[in-house]
């Protein structure tokens, strides 16, 4: 069923994700559209919504902690020489319209608004594609256009003085389980070896047995994230596995990302959603199939 507020993504007729355009989210969590739940083709849930450890983690979407000082991530703001601080600076991403809406994807227009002013206008393109009988791909592109008359820059806690915390951009909050997921790339293994580094693809693999409230039971699963453009592949990965399972692509890793008036920043991340635990060869093969030239 599809409404103005939500739609269901389907692959080969099977529901694999629900997208909410106007969720009822407290202002402190930076209201924004998100995908949740997202599942494998067998129905295993691979996202979480507002878990107790981070209430502002909203499934799959775009979240940025610093857009000209405004918080589009949710929660506290990292202030240089002060640390995480409660500020009344939260923005919201507001759904404007769907330019296209099909069972397997959509094109959406959004407005990024803070303190009554629109800072950015976004076009978001999402598509779901079958890869095999046990894997599908979520193709997620977002384009942020500066519609103001002055430069707009995107930052992160890392650019504001907190090393290792360069989160902001595409972000996927996976479900928390009894054991931390395995995380690996083509040539590295473990959170400490892949976090903050560039890689053509990065995999997160879990084993079922959820420990958080609200997570559905299910079997083994693997998520394989791939930057699908040259520019996206230049962004290092933000990775958490031990504290909580989450993966993002960092827009502002060591320096702020400026967007000049009328200019657009574009990123595209393709995520393979697979039943079972994939090895490196299987992950690489599915990425090749999922990412078109």
How many DSSP H or I helices?
3
- Structural class by SSE content: mainly beta
Radius of gyration: 18 Å
Q: N- to C-terminal separation?
A: 33 Å
The order of strands across the largest sheet is: 8-9-10-11-20-16-15-14
Mean pLDDT: 94
What is the chain-wise order of helices and strands?
EEEEEEEEEEEEEEHEEHEEEEH
Layout of helices and strands, plus pairs?
Layout: E1 6-11, E2 14-20, E3 34-38, E4 60-67, E5 70-72, E6 77-79, E7 83-85, E8 92-102, E9 105-114, E10 117-132, E11 135-146, E12 152-155, E13 169-173, E14 182-185, H1 191-194, E15 201-206, E16 221-227, H2 230-234, E17 237-240, E18 246-249, E19 257-259, E20 264-275, H3 280-290
Antiparallel strand pairs: 1-2, 2-3, 4-5, 4-12, 4-13, 6-7, 8-9, 9-10, 10-11, 11-20, 12-19, 13-18, 14-15, 15-16, 16-20, 17-18
Descriptive report:
The protein is mostly beta strands. The protein contains 3 helices and 20 strands. Helices cover 7% and strands 45% of the residues. The strands form 4 sheets. An 8-stranded antiparallel β-sheet has the order 8-9-10-11-20-16-15-14. Strands 4, 5, 12, 13, 17, 18 and 19 form a 7-stranded antiparallel β-sheet that branches. Strands 1-2-3 form a 3-stranded antiparallel β-sheet, with no helix packed on it. It is globular and about 50 Å long. About 2% of the residues have low confidence.
Search tags:
293 residues, mainly beta, 8-stranded antiparallel sheet, 7-stranded antiparallel sheet, 3 helices, 45% strand, globular
Provide a compact summary of the structure.
With 293 residues, the chain is mostly beta strands.
